[in-house]
Amino acid sequence: MNEKVLYTLEFNKIIEKLTEKCVTPLGREEAAHLLPSDTLYEIERNQCETADALTRIFRFGGISCSGARDIRASLLRLKVQANLGMPELLNIASVCKTAARVKAFGGKKENEDDTDSLEDSFRALEPLQALSREIERCIISEEDMADDASSTLRSIRRKIKTAAEKVRSELNSLVNSNTGYLRDNVITMRNGRYCVPVKSEYRSQVPGMMHDESGSGSTVFIEPMSVVKLNNEIRQLEIDEQKEIEVILANLSTLAADHTAALETDLMVLSHLDFVFAKAQLAREMDASRPNFNDRKYINIKKGRHPLLDRHKVVPIDIYLGDAFHQLIVTGPNTGGKTVSLKTVGLFQLMGQAGLHIPAFQESSLGIFREIYADIGDEQSIEQSLSTFSSHMKNIIRILEEADTDSLVLFDELCAGTDPQEGAALAIAILNFLKRMEVRTMATTHYSELKIFALSNPGVENASCEFDVATLSPTYRLLIGIPGKSNAFAISKKLGLPGFIIDEAREQLDDESEHFEDVIKSLNDSRHRMEKEQMRINELKAEARDLKSTLAKQEARIEEQKAKILQDARAEARKMLQEAKDQVDETIRMMNKTGQYDVRELEKTRAKTRELLDKNSAGRKEDVPRQRSSTQAKDLHIGDGVHVLSMNLNGTVSTLPDAKGNLFVQMGILRSQVHISDITKLNEATISYGGKSVRTEKSGGASIGMSKAATISAEINLIGKTVDEAIYALEKYLDDAYLAHLSQVRIVHGKGSGALRSAVQNRLRKLPYIAEFHNGEYGEGDAGVTIAHFK
User: Fold this and answer.
1) Which bin fits 335, alpha (ψ -120 to 50), beta or left (φ > 0)?
2) Dihedral sign, CA of 473, 478, 481, 486?
3) Are 118 and 106 in contact (CB under 8 A)?
4) Nearest-CA neighbor of 639 among 581, 546, 727, 701?
């Protein structure tokens, strides 16, 4: 891509915005050198990275790579086995810590299966936490080494501290015994050695080494002989300290050198991620979206906003080019937005091909161009003695020499600045040349001849920037398919130019030009009428949607009321069924209590229950559309498990269907006649007892019935059985007792050692249908008996 167009279309300003959002030195370098690509694979890869980074920002927030210092020079020194200083090692530790933090951010996922184009980058990071911890353990700051960096260093610094305390003690004694020789009662340092300030006239009275003299010469700084040896010792210890620090730095450098490749990878990955997330942050700031790319050189920008203009003030525009037509001629008044539209197309292409999102609606499309050429702005050059027209023409000549089918060409005021007739003729010839080469071209102009050229040539389309004559201001809307009108007469009249002058000006126009302007005016009037009609259509559509929504809400209310009525009916049915069940349960309890039963009483109870069930069935038929069954007579056998739809109960077939399709079904202790259309066959016989479902085999399904309820005892004797035998017998007995609707049972296990009682009661705790149990009371068997109550 030629460098000139990057500045002409202000792509460099976009790069400046992008660079500001990078926080690492290498990330800023990558952003500063960003250029558009002309390879579809590379463009899509870069766009995908930007989109994935933007998605991560919306989901988890941004990342901070600020700790990724530029350690390239340090890594080069490590490769030649040089030792690093404390600031360089701290920078390496900072890169390692940043890599650990960014890698943890990359591991955040809403679903384990979520992957994106940045996954490999996050996975490539190697935090090297052991290296960073060791560096930070040894080095406190860029100038301080920790005492604990090594045992030798700790020992040396302890000795320095001890020697310094001895020196201060000796000098304090000298200062406290000041006989007038000292200038001040202080201890000072000169050339790294402890000294005292002595008056110049008494220098011979204080034996020692003079290290300095004040500016006035009235004070000399003398190291007393009594502390010379101690100061020498301190100096030697300081030399030893520096040597030990060099040893520690060498060890840390060797440790870092073992990870040079990993550090290089971390630095490169962190810098690239910083650059990618900077692109995403820029897209978020611009409210930009990812464009679609095609190899047909087709451009379709939906509601595009120039990224360098205030997003709250700029008017979005729709532009398409390269499909039905390859050239777009934009006309209209000055300051109407022609140049902004031109720059928007070119800048969007540069941004998109560079991997940046564009501030436009989603599903906007861009082509892929090897070169973009733009002739925009005042190219006048005084130094080169070029007029505006000459400088523009020089640029146009270069474009015509270099442009091909893989180019996008943008002309602002094509061939302006010269005689209008000659300029229009040149412009038409240039456009014809580019048209024959199938170069995508967009040009702005004031020449009416170019409007006619667009109207009369296939593959060329007119467009205009709308102007509101009533307010004398542009609307900045781009209208494709309609040529622009200069509106010079209307504007002049609005501003107060006398009418007779305007009329005389009209007479200067030839009939063809005036007719053409009238056609344009007619087209604009028709467009306004169509827009008003479209607005009315949209209003009617909105009213229809509101009406549809209201009807849907009313239908929902009706369905809700219907559901409530059905719910109430079902509640009443459940109440009737419960009454029937309670009556049957009471009968069974009476039978269990007396140990005998009257068949006639049972028949009366059965008749009452049948009456309640029939009443319930009748109510359900009225309230609920009856569910039909596809069960056929040939599919049924005695003992088969079936579900009775009208009663919502499971049972077993007692008799086969007769000629009318009626058959008897045993449901617990109830035996009812139903129609074959009212039952569905189950895979196994599933029989309901007391609201619970118990699965049985076909062979034994018909045997569970009223006989068991009449013969089950309210007591079981387990005395004399082993624990295993007793538990087996107990579980079988409790199942039968529960199916027979006994309210409680008496379990006789004897007192003995208490083992059998404990086993029985432990088992009772685990049975879901046992409500509670307790030892027998006085007269019931005491501790030799357990009374269990069913739920």
Assistant:
1) left
2) positive
3) yes
4) 701
Q: Residue 736: CA atoms inside 13 Å, Cβ hemisphere, count?
A: 20
Name residue 189's beta-bridge partners: 194
Q: Do residues 392 and 416 touch, judged by C-beta distance below 8 A?
A: yes
Helices marked H in 145-297: 151-176, 225-257, 260-286
SS3 state at 107: coil
Largest CA distance in the chain: 145
Classify each residue of 209-240 as buried b or exposed e, where b means 16 or more C-beta atoms within 10 Å of its C-beta: eebeeeeeeebbbbbbeebbebbebbeebeeb
- Give CA–CA dist 605/754, Å, rounded: 45
Q: Are 387 and 380 within 8 A, CB to CB?
A: yes
**3-class SS of residue 461:** strand
**How far is 441 from 435, CA to CA, in rounded Å?**
8
C-alpha to C-alpha distance for 734 and 327, rounded to whole angstroms: 92
Looking at residue 94, what is its pLDDT? Answer: 93
Place of tokens 């130094």: 383
Residue 15 and residue 34 in contact, taking contact as beta carbons nearer than 8 Å: yes
Read off φ and ψ for residue 614, nearest 5 degrees: -65, -40
Element (H, E) at 345: helix 338-353
Measured CA to CA, the distance from residue 213 to residue 200 in angstroms comes to 9
Report residue 664 as tokens.
């008897």
Structure-block tokens of residue 202: 């008494």
Cα separation, 358 vs 349, whole angstroms = 9
DSSP-based three-state secondary structure for 342: helix
Q: Give the CA distances from residue 648 to residues 255, 577, 627, in Å, rounded to whole numbers and listed in that order.
A: 78, 10, 11
What type of residue sits at position 141?
A: S
> Is 320 a residue whose pLDDT tops 80?
yes
pLDDT tens digits along 247-270: 999 999 999 999 999 999 999 999
Q: From the CB of residue 539, how many other CB atoms can be counted at a distance below 10 Å?
A: 10
- Burial of residue 266, with CB atoms counted within 10 A of its CB: 0-12 exposed, 13-18 middle, 19 or more buried: buried
Going by C-beta distance under 8 Å and a sequence separation of 6 or more, which residues neighbour residue 520? 451, 482, 483, 484, 485
Whether 282 and 442 have beta carbons less than 8 Å apart is answered as: no
CA distance linking residue 99 with residue 101, whole number of Å: 5
Position 747, amino acid? I
* CA–CA distance, 394 with 536 (Å, rounded to integer): 51
Neighbours of 524 (CB within 10 A): 20
Q: What is the pLDDT of residues 128-168, one digit of tens each?
A: 999 999 999 999 998 899 999 999 999 999 998 988 888 88
For 618, other C-beta atoms within 10 Å of its C-beta total 11
Helix (H) or strand (E) holding 744: strand 744-748
Residue 375, SS3 per DSSP? strand
Q: β-strand 208-213 against 219-224: which pairing, if any?
A: antiparallel
Angle at 591 between CA 586 and CA 592, to 5 degrees: 100
What CA–CA distances, in Å, run from 746 to 528, 709, 781? 96, 17, 10
Which residue in 592, 610, 590, 605 sits closest to 738, CA to CA? 592
Within 8 A by CB and 6+ apart from 309, the residues are: 340
CB within 8 A of 30, min separation 6: which ones?
A: 22, 271, 272, 275
Cα distances (Å, whole numbers) of residue 206 to 181, 188, 210, 784 = 8, 16, 10, 111
Check: CB of residue 667 under 8 Å from CB of residue 647.
yes
- Of 106, 123, 108, 35, which is closest to residue 65 (Cα–Cα)? 106
Angle at 56 between CA 51 and CA 59, to 5 degrees: 125
Which of 768-775's residues contact partners 24+ apart within 8 Å by CB, and which partners? 769/692, 769/734, 769/738, 770/734
Cβ(224)–Cβ(207) below 8 Å: yes
Residue that wins the pLDDT comparison between 443 and 575: 443
Does this model's pTM top 0.85? My answer is no
Structure tokens at 568: 């109430």
